[in-house]
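name: query_chain
kind: protein
chains: 1
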Amino acid sequence: MLRQNCLSKSTKRRRILDEINLIKRSLTDDVSSPQLVANIVDLSPEISNSPNDITFQDTADTVNNLQFEPSCSNTSFDVEANNSSVFLRPENTDASDSDLDRISSLKQSIPENLYQRASENNVPNSTFDKLLNILKGHKCFQDLPITSRTFYKMYSSVSYNKPVEMKSVSPGYYYHFGVAHNIKQYLDKYFSDETIKLVIGIDGLPLAKSSGSCFWPILGYIRQKNQTVFPIGIYWGHNKPGDSNIYIKDFVDEVMSLIQNGIDVDIFNNKTLTKVHKNLVIDCFCCDMPAKAFLLKTKSHTGFFSCTRTRCTVQGQYLCRRVCFPDTECPRRTHDDFVNKIQRQYHSSCDDTTEILNIPSLDIVKNFSLDYMHVVCLNAMKKIIISWKGGDGLGRDVNKQKLNPNLIKIMSERLLSLKYKIPK
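structure:
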């Protein structure tokens, strides 16, 4: 005899017995009527002792002929039979439609709450995987994914339909998060100023010593609300970006548009969330001297025309194996002089110009803050302290080599001449 639906008689009989045993256990736990349970119990021997030529239709008819006693009040069951299993479906229950809707919505909100708590508390993926395995052991959570990665993909607000668009910046890759997106997300809803002042920080971050893998992120925060720093763009590669203009092109283009056109943000006005138009300016760039020289395409802090402490055009001198700037009376640098490249020795290339100059209302000299580490900690202050302690800064004792008496005077006058204000 041919098998129906590729199932043998013994397989069908075994599945029916499993279903009846499951019904018997559930009714024993939930229903207090002994007569109802007895009817199901009487069915089991009939099927188990049946001959080998029993057909599935006969068994289904036997189940359909069950007469439930009215002792199970307000509950009736409709028994359905198909070619694989038997189901009991409740028609009328004590639970109202509102209760069922509430239970269904609660069941749907549990995965979203799990995702939110795991994201807020930075739960490791290994811990989250163990939690999901425990929850999947219960019948209510069998629809949850096995791994946390699938869980984040299903319940996060990030769209995974299209791949992340990475920009090729030799010798690595760059991804732009966006300025406007972060401002709308992190701006205080009670922000009252008319102008949003943005502070930008750019620097390199090594990831490994062996391969040279590194990050070059573009970070920012709002000057009036400086509790949160957000990523604007990030570069990855085995070396720093080859061309700074390609690296910051997306950032400069977006900032230019925001400064010229402004930005619409959600602000509470009389306890009502409304769209308000705000202006945007770049308040400051925070970079150390190597990063600043890389972005502006200028000489590094060890060059003869690289004075960035007093922002003047002094020419350096080589003293005691160091590049020093003894002349304190020199013209200060200006934005127009930088654009016109009046002092060509200060620029690393006469033909190439930085893209930062395209940002409107930006003073290339005043809007770049001074690097405290290189200006004070690793430069003038360090030399003065070593000289005051009795050395010349070269690792030699004063008694072995006479200290240049003008060195301390030059560095002291240079330090006292720093009377400018560091941008906030």
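note: The chain has 13 helices and twelve strands.
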